[in-house]
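cache lookup: miss for this entity combination. No prior model stored, computing from scratch. Input as submitted by user K.M.:
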Amino acid sequence: GENVEQHPSTLSVQEGDSAVIKCTYSDSASNYFPWYKQELGKRPQLIIDIRSNVGEKKDQRIAVTLNKTAKHFSLHITETQPEDSAVYFCAARGAGTASKLTFGTGTRLQVTL
Amino acid sequence: EADIYQTPRYLVIGTGKKITLECSQTMGHDKMYWYQQDPGMELHLIHYSYGVNSTEKGDLSSESTVSRIRTEHFPLTLESARPSHTSQYLCASSGSMNTEAFFGQGTRLTVV
């Protein structure tokens, strides 16, 4: 089955700096890669996703890059703000009707003033 | 409003009790998931369903069961609750194509 590794497990940056979280996946057939943000006491919510036919996607201060050859994808947050502090999860899903989402272990991002 | 609903939100029960956590979604999604998560920690997959009468066990499934008789409903049953089951349980659903998964608000379970 799919295995998703996520690094780092914790990340502390100063407000205004950039943050990068990296994930690798094992199943070369995976073709969908979402990123979720979970604030304290709340449910995970999708912030951005990318499909295997695209190498990069941006949404304001958030971007995701995908390297299919190396089987890794990354989340980039620019101009970080205190409200970006949360736990971030990457995930991967393969092709096929029975394929399921496999999550990384999460990264706790702390944006300090 | 299309959403995914979990009940109860909070539950405190005694050791040895049988409990069922409810999850329903109104989005017509064929895939549904149960995760166990301690606050701010990893999402551990307990069970997965890719359609009616089609379920798979996850990493932590050995002490629980699920059923998927209807598309919209995916209950999780703990046959004999233990203090080690104390955690938050999150239900999620997604469509058959590569679309996002939506999470319910969770059930926070405490076994005393």
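stored under new cache key. DSSP finds no helices and eleven strands in chain A.
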